[in-house]
Amino acid sequence: MSKTYKAGLPIALIIAGLAAYANSFAGPFIFDDKDGILENPHILHLWPLNEAMSSSPQSTVAGRPIASLSLAMNYAVSGYSVWSYHFFNLAVHILAGLTLYGIIRRTLLCERLRERFGKHSAVLGWAAATIWLVHPIQTESVTYIVQRTESLMGLFYLLTLYSVIRAMQSDKPSIWSAVSVVCCGLGMGTKEAMITAPVMVLLYDRAFFAGSFGAAFRRRWGLYAGLAATWGILAGLIWSGPRSRSAGFSIGYGPLDYALNQFIIVLHYLRLIFWPSGLCLDYGWVIVKDWGRILPPMIVILSMLAVTAWGVVRNRRWAYPAVWLFGILSPSSSFVPIADLAFEHRMYLPLVGVTALVVSAGYVLLERRSAKKMGIILTAAVICALGVVTLRRNNDYRSIVSIWQTVLDIVPDNPRGHNNLGYGLQLEGKLDEALAHYKEALRINLSYADAHYNLGLVLLSRDKFDEAAACFNQALCIKPGYAGAHCNLGVILASQGRFDEAINHYNLALKARPDSPEVHNNLGSALLAKGKTNEALDHFQRAIKQKPNFAEAYFNAGFALESKGSLNEAINYYRQALKFNPDFDKAHYNLGNALASQGKYNEAVTQFKEAIRVDPDYLEAHYNLAKSLKSAGRLDEAADHYRRALKIKPDSVEALDNLGNLLSEQGKFDEAAVCYRRALAIEPNSPEAHYNFGVSLLSQDKFDEAAGHFRQVLKINPNHTGAAATLQFLLGKRK
């Protein structure tokens, strides 16, 4: 085979990967992306590294610092725009495919396989790696963003083995051995399934190079010591129980039930490899105790394991791909219970074993029959067919609604499917449809806290506060530490002026989610309403630290500072709020007020106009814009905004009164009189309208009418010094 041809194979592999995932870049954040990305404040910082490598407890990336860091890198590039996350996922997947190509090609060139496979090692490596790359079962690890935990771990796993192979074939193996240990350590920091890597490397060495475990240890004891040391990294990460609710022996079913059901599930995985139809994001698999369903797959899988064990004992080369399949599946498909019995992303690396075994077996069979052209045609057909199915599967991920609809098409009674479809519909504004799915989720499982919570959110959006509160309380009965439910109960209570109760719920929410910027912001608002300005500021600052682009927290901090008289600091915070949300009308309004109070009327005018651009019916902004325009000497513009305010609120006494004053200053007394009379018709006992009308009449030398209005002011408010002094002056003038 020519060097040019060999060089073209990796390029062809890259093209195949790009083609299969060309339509995956617009898929939104779904499912566990919410807690791993959208509600994970740690990804908002790239520095310090320990912050970027942290995550909220119980989230998908908790205890997986390398995966967390990768998300922080994506956020630094594109914020919450999904394209960079998808680009990273696909890049990882293609790099893993290239690494797999290198592993298979070099394995087939080793002394024990060279005679049979060496001549076509590159083509066979390419075929196996490309089939693995474009297989639709991989979409869950590539298109579903946060499941990069699986694909990124897979890349480090493959790089660990590839580096070991290079070390075995090198005259100076120390560098490659060091690279393999580093990659293994990174994998341990990405996902727990990496635990099997040192063992799989040892089995590989024994099968293809050393010939026995003893020889492997004698030749490369330092390498194995280094690989084994990386287990310490994983042990340290697991020790704190970052996802204790999703795995362990207190999940709700025992290890025996879990293990027995895995026979059914592993056989299902194998079926998907050879016939990838009915792919499902969330099977909602429940424990089966019917031996009639357990026994047949159990016999099949145990028979496969027995044959594999025999092959390993006899050191048969074909046994290694089978060991790879079962060995890598063992952490998730043995006896340690995991909350979700089945997920397709668990087959990301195990698929390598099946693909390599099928391709090599197919090559041997076709070679004996001299049907190499048939092999090429079959390989091309399989790659194209799998690529088309992958494209179609990627299309299911185009929206939250579409992916969860496919789940319900396969598993109609999946409560989580109904809940998440409802969430997607709620985001699209289809609240009635969302409510129907939340209620269906609760019909299937009345103890489903998330469905109660989401139902409460819809009711809250419709201002049905009592019903919403009942839903949040029900969620808390099922899941006492539910941060979102505590937070939204706090919102309801704060809206009713029950700030002490609201503060209590916000504090309970912070116990569950101490890193939630939204809860800190809400708690700060409640404290501010209680007059605890310094405490409120502290929580606003924490919210900003955890979420540096949190416009509302900057606004609230500015408001708190303004209430303390720290006007310049408040202005800076309002400007920061507008930096992150240029359409924040209240921030424009408050900034305008602060600037006006400093006599910066033209700058204030700009801010009020921006507030009105965002909300043309912002009544207070029209008022204060008119006042600033008047102070800036722009009287006609000021009058225009008072008139616009009156179109929004025709019975506004304040606007009528101020417009009357402005017209009086311009000498337009008749128009001013119309304004004052309209104001008094609406509010006959308005001392300001009577007084201002009196002043206007006085400037026209209509002393008797003016005096009548001043008397009316004093009748309403006997302590009005302006009216009393003016009336006394008029009476004295008459004498």
The oligomerization state is single chain
Distance from N terminus to C terminus (CA atoms, Å) equals: 123 Å
Number of separate helices: 38
Helix content: over 70%
Coarse structural class: mainly alpha
Mean residue pLDDT? 92
- Unreliable residue runs: none
Explained architecture:
With 735 residues, the protein is mainly alpha-helical. It has 38 helices and no strands. Helix 4 (65-78) crosses helix 5 (83-108), helix 19 packs antiparallel against helix 20 and helix 20 (415-427) runs parallel beside helix 22 (449-461). The longest helix is centred in the first third of the chain and has 26 residues, at 83-108. The termini are far apart.
Write the layout of secondary structure elements.
Blueprint: H1 3-20, H2 33-38, H3 49-52, H4 65-78, H5 83-108, H6 114-117, H7 121-134, H8 139-142, H9 148-168, H10 174-188, H11 197-210, H12 213-229, H13 231-239, H14 255-274, H15 291-313, H16 319-329, H17 350-368, H18 372-396, H19 400-410, H20 415-427, H21 431-444, H22 449-461, H23 465-478, H24 483-495, H25 499-512, H26 517-529, H27 533-546, H28 551-563, H29 567-580, H30 585-597, H31 601-614, H32 619-631, H33 635-648, H34 653-665, H35 669-682, H36 687-699, H37 703-716, H38 721-734
Helix pairs in contact: 1-5, 1-7, 4-5, 5-7, 5-9, 7-17, 7-18, 9-10, 9-11, 11-12, 11-16, 14-15, 15-16, 16-17, 19-20, 20-21, 20-22, 21-22, 22-23, 23-24, 24-25, 24-26, 25-26, 26-27, 26-28, 27-28, 28-29, 29-30, 30-31, 30-32, 31-32, 32-33, 33-34, 34-35, 34-36, 35-36, 36-37, 37-38
